[in-house]
Amino acid sequence: MTRVMIVGAGGVGNVVAHKCAAQNDFSEILLASRTQAKCDQIAARIGSPKLKTAALDADQVSNTVKLLRDFQPELLINVALPYQDLALMDACLEAGVHYLDTANYEPPDVAKFEYHWQWAYQDKFQQAGLTAILGCGFDPGVTGVFTAHALKHHFDEIHYLDIVDCNAGSHGQSFATNFNPEINIREITQKGRYYENGQWVEIDPLSIHRPIPYPEIGNRESYLLYHEELESLAKNIPGLKRARFWMTFSEAYITHLRVLEAVGMTRIDEVEFQGQKIVPLQFLKAVLPEPASLAENYSGQTSIGCHIQGLKDGQPKTYYVYNNCDHAECYREVGSQAISYTTGVPAVIGALMVVRGLWKKPGVFNVEECDPDPFMALLGPLGLPWHEVINQPSPFEYP
Fold first, then answer.
1. pLDDT one-digit tens code per residue, 96-116
2. pLDDT band at 364 (very low <50, low <70, confident <90, very high)
3. Average pLDDT over residues 204-217
4. What is the pTM of this model?
5. Cβ neighbours of residue 122 closer than 8 Å, sequence gap 6 or more
6. Around Cβ 20, how many Cβ atoms within 10 Å?
7. Of the ranges 237-241, 276-280, 370-374, which one carries the lowest mean pLDDT score?
């Protein structure tokens, strides 16, 4: 029995709080956010005596340190904004608390998704005897665990990896993002990148796309993006020759996005408006629907998985591992849509891995560096069953 502190009270924070409250491993849970009222609303819905709430400005390290020292959790689960990752890691080091997040750090003033800022904390966490688990959502997160599982149980060498992410759900809005609009749009509008033959290939945003089949969904147009787990997987999976990430978008979504980009609404630099400085993308975020508000009317499924090709016993082998998640079922269980659910559940499993001592080792780690077996064993029971397809035709070409 241990204490855990959750930072962030958006859609993912709601799922993490629900799922943590249901685990016997956690005796007390503190949910903290800049707006305590959001935490209180989540706590009221859950109705667990284990759950407490607090206000926290996570940009200020001293504030977080004080809260950590008062509450004394074993682990901090960071589901706040990626801009706050380093401040929260600093606070954990000062207070002697283990750390876990679901998305890598990015600086507010440039759309740059790289792990090097957090990897630089390796020595500090090692010397402190603390664990930091990075990117423990679904993608990144489960996709890295899927890849580690494939290497451990199905391959001697992995050569080709294609991560595929489809949201075939419908929320009834003409344009909305499924998680924080600012983060989502920054991710999509930057240049695409993929790893091939030891180097990174850069492409114009959304310039490469193709139809890809998804189980129970069918073909969906999928766009090649850069996604942060490609960086860690290229580093941590030996022998990898190519790694790519694909995500689906509807024609309507792409049209809206291109218009917003053309008129400057996706800019992240400041502009002057009526005598004050504003960031256009932050203003756009303020007028778009709150992602958590989409949950009640969401229908359809998500499908996220890994298509892998490599060698086993000297012979070529193909392997596909995936999860499908239903928006409406997520809402019935925890009041969320599937995007938040598929991010929040893995964060709780990662937390269990740490507090049970299975992933607890000094230093900073991406999930594929940890034993995938106990994590995979909990995915289904906690709501994300996974499926395997072995040596069947692949939608991707391999040299």
1. 999 999 999 988 766 677 899
2. very high
3. 95
4. 0.92
5. 363, 364
6. 24
7. 276-280
Phi, psi of 231 (to 5 degrees): -65, -45
**Does 294 score more than 80 pLDDT?**
no
Amino acid letter, residue 179: F
Decide if 68 contacts 76 (C-beta within 8 A).
yes
- Please provide the size of the chain in residues: 399
Residue with tokens 């305590």: 36
Structure tokens of 219? 């073909």
Please state, rounded to an integer, the average pLDDT across all residues of the chain: 92
How many CB atoms are closer than 10 A to CB 340? Answer: 28
Cβ neighbours for 140, distance < 8 A, ≥ 6 positions apart: 102, 103, 104, 134, 227, 228, 229, 232, 366, 367
Q: What is the pLDDT of residues 17-57, one digit of tens each?
A: 999 999 999 999 999 999 999 999 999 999 999 999 999 99
pLDDT band for position 230 (cuts 50, 70, 90): very high
Using CA atoms, how far apart are residues 306 and 318, in angstroms rounded to an integer?
11
Q: Which of 229, 232, 258, 260 is CA-nearest to residue 245?
A: 229
Query: Helix 229-236 crosses helix 142-153 at what angle (to 10 degrees)?
Result: 20
Residue 181: per-residue pLDDT: 62
